Amino acid sequence: MLKPLPETPSRLVSGTPAFRRLNLALFAAGFSTFAILYCVQPLLPEFSQEFQVSAAVSSLSLSLSTGLLAVAMLVAGSLSEVWGRKPVMVASLFASAFLTLLSAAAPNWTSLLLARMAIGITLSGLPAVAMAYVSEEVDTKSIGLAMGLFIGGNAVGGMAGRIISGVLTDLGSWRIAIGLIGAIGLASAFAAWRSLPTSAHFHPRPARPGPLLRSFGEHLQDPGLRALFAEAFLLMGGFVTIYNYLGYRLTEAPYSLSQSAIGAIFSAYLIGTLSSAWIGELAGRLGRRRVLWAMIAIMLAGVALTLFHHLALILAGIVAVTFGFFGAHSIASSWVGNRALGAKAQASALYLFCYYLGSSAVGTLGGVFWTHGGWPGVSALVALLLIAALALAFRLMVLAPREAKQPLGQ
Q1: Phi and psi at residue 175, in whole multiples of 5°?
Q2: Which residues make Cβ contacts (< 8 Å) with residue 222, sequence separation at least 6?
Q3: How far is Cα 138 from Cα 18, in angstroms, rounded to an integer?
Q4: Is the bond into 254 cis (omega within 30 degrees of 0)?
Q5: Has residue 149 got a pLDDT over 80?
Q6: DSSP class of residue 252?
Q7: Which H/E stretch holds residue 258?
Q8: What is the pLDDT of residue 279?
């Protein structure tokens, strides 16, 4: 008598206890990753003063991290196809937390940059792998919500890292601030290690470079994925540039805000937390094609508001940019995971490679625009990027779906 085949584990559906445990674990992991990555952003003027470096050079403390993160994710995504999702993610979290603790004791500018470069490499094991993990383990109809909640954790982590570093720098020093972020990262790593479920739908691939590299080429052959990768570069490049140089603008007259006040502005990330989950679910109901362009248009309107001199209008513009960005990122990132026919971690890695390449390259280029054109120069650069992103969103609206055997959601 033939033995019955083992049942395939069902995928996680929203509203179940397993779905909630998954999202709590990923929320902690995303919180840690983005708090560590972005805790230096409000400290750029502080670094300029203490280490006597320009705005563009100070921005390297963030840009080098994001640049190396972009490249390293291509490797981390491939390794996770062989070793599994959870081991790569957990190792990434622990290593990044320890390096952050070490960076708080950096004796000079060079050693701080070296530590931040290493952090960029170790952080690479979480973002792309987590996107693939969600696309494999979560039911298709719940992916938009799950990805939105994960990105919400990223937003809260990025916000908390910025606010904590700003407030503690005013109260003590930037070293205390970064040290505390490292300790929080270590606690989050333990939480993810204990709570994150082992993959039920992951199938390891042989550790052969040839097939892994061919997978990258297959993803790049699809015009839809290429457009989504370009969206990642343009949207993140514009978003991080706004926040990089906002601190320089608001520490000058007539605003003359403190580091704590500037750090508090990053509470706008709470709007991003809400928009990523809400817009992700809305796009699941209405279709990504119908919602993506609207989020980019909201970002453009926000950039226009920041050109006014009244602080309330500037802050309203920052809220609009943040809302639109996290909504657009939630849509685009979940779209990649669904559109890719296989090797989803590598597809996610390519998306995030472009995402962080935009952060690194445009974030530093924005320093040149700030130096020579002030805030109008920065705004003009970001507006050009968003206009290009809007054109791509309209292109995605009319792009033919992939072949019928692809996953749903295209």
Answers
A1: -65, -40
A2: 339, 402
A3: 10
A4: yes
A5: no
A6: S
A7: none
A8: 81
Q: Which residues contact 169 (CB under 8 A, 6 or more apart)?
A: 42, 43, 46, 176, 177, 259
pTM score: 0.70
How far is it, in rounded angstroms, from Cα 114 to Cα 124? 16
What is the predicted pLDDT for the residue at 409? 36
Instruction: Say whether pLDDT at 3 is over 60.
Output: no
DSSP assignment of 262-316: HHHHGGGHHHHHHHHHHHHHHHHHH-HHHHHHHHHHHHHHHHHHTTSSSHHHHHH
pLDDT digits (tens, 9 = 90+) for 7-32: 556 777 777 777 887 778 888 888 88
Question: Which tokens go with 231?
Answer: 């969206």
What's the CA gap between 283 and 273, in Å, rounded? 16
Counting Cβ atoms within 10 Å, is residue 312 exposed (0-12), middle (13-18) or buried (19+)? exposed
Reduced to 3 states (helix: H, G, I; strand: E, B; else coil), residue 8 is coil
Q: Has residue 401 got a pLDDT over 90?
A: no
Tell the residue number behind the tokens 């994925």, with chain if given.
225
If one compares 198 and 246, the residue with the highest pLDDT of the two is 246
For 370, the 3-state DSSP assignment is: helix
* The pLDDT of residue 314: 94
Instruction: Report how far residue 399's alpha carbon sits from residue 395's, in angstroms, rounded to the nearest whole number.
Output: 6
DSSP 172-202: T-HHHHHHHHHHHHHHHHHHHHHHSPPPSS-
Query: In residues, how long is the chain?
Result: 410
